[in-house]
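fwd from M.: "can u put these together and see what the complex looks like"

so here's what she sent:
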Amino acid sequence: MILGRLAALAAATEPPAHEAAAHGGAEAAPHAVGPAEVLMHHVVDSRWGDLVIGPLNLGPTKHLFFFGVAAALVILVVRLAMRSYKQGIPSGLGAAVEALIVFVRDDIAEKNIGHDGRKFAPLLLSFFFFILVAALFGLIPMPSYDFKTGHLSLAGVTSTGNIAVTLGLAFISFLAQQWGGISKFGVVHHFLGMVPPGMPKALLPIMIPVELIGMFTKPFALMIRLFANMLAGHMVVTTLLLLIPLMAAISTAFGVLMIPISLALALFIMILEVLVAFIQAYIFTLLTAIFIGMYAHPAH
Amino acid sequence: MPTDPKALAYFAAGIGAGLTIMGGAAGIGRLAAAAMEGIARQPNAAGDIRGAMIVAAGLIEGVTFFSLIVTILLAIK
């Protein structure tokens, strides 16, 4: 997957016997990128252009671009699925997409938000499909050319492995939760209803901060959970594959021996990552629905 | 005992990662054991138990990842 980097690393760390005499240690400095740098280079965002407006740099970055591609892909797939509806009965892609949509609408939205859960179904469906597609994109090796160093590398790009992206998703989830309460009870009663009724007044100074903090920690937990899962998963895959050049630095025989082991481990972890993508999308959507339900139907 | 702050940070990151995985694996292990026992007692409820198990595992892993983020911050600063 990281063929370009593999070649560069192998070339730079060849037994320096014939190089040391000619170049000494100076040759090593510009080429010796350690595995940590390669790892970080693959999972961290990289800027593709600059568009400075005031204090903000709105230029496109790797994660922003693939975020847009994931969203466009979701819209495209749903449009194609809609096209396959003949007399109310879908076929092929439409049937598969419909199964997922009905699952989210019935088991997640209506079960947790109650009879008016369908209002929130489009939002929850957007969350589910977008997080799933963005995570699956991270498993597809994309060739990318780094203009600065001129290295070609093949690696997946996970836009949800960027905390800014998950912050945006969690913020929208936060707004949806507040809307769940405000749309039913109005602003004042939404906040008044957070404190359980029929409770001794002495506990109010404790309950109010607890509820307010809870209001913010719930989306914060959503954000960190998704971000860390996506980031950690892809870091593990990249690390396992980086073992090949690392072993090759010690001796070429080790490097060649390491290839099947590393590939098998990386393949196993990638299969696990597909499962984790589904699970994380499901958990994000489910928890958002549960929290909206908590504010829309204070069950106290 | 190294006194250089950077060395101590790496050291702490290693210990932190170990502690993190201890807590996370213990919790999820207990969860899996209880789920297996539940399915063994009542195979009809296997679907419901499996769903609840996955949700709970996701939540526990979420908490594990909080402390993992702290560890990673130590290791890269």
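replying to her w this: Confidence is low (pLDDT under 50) at residues 6-31 of chain A.
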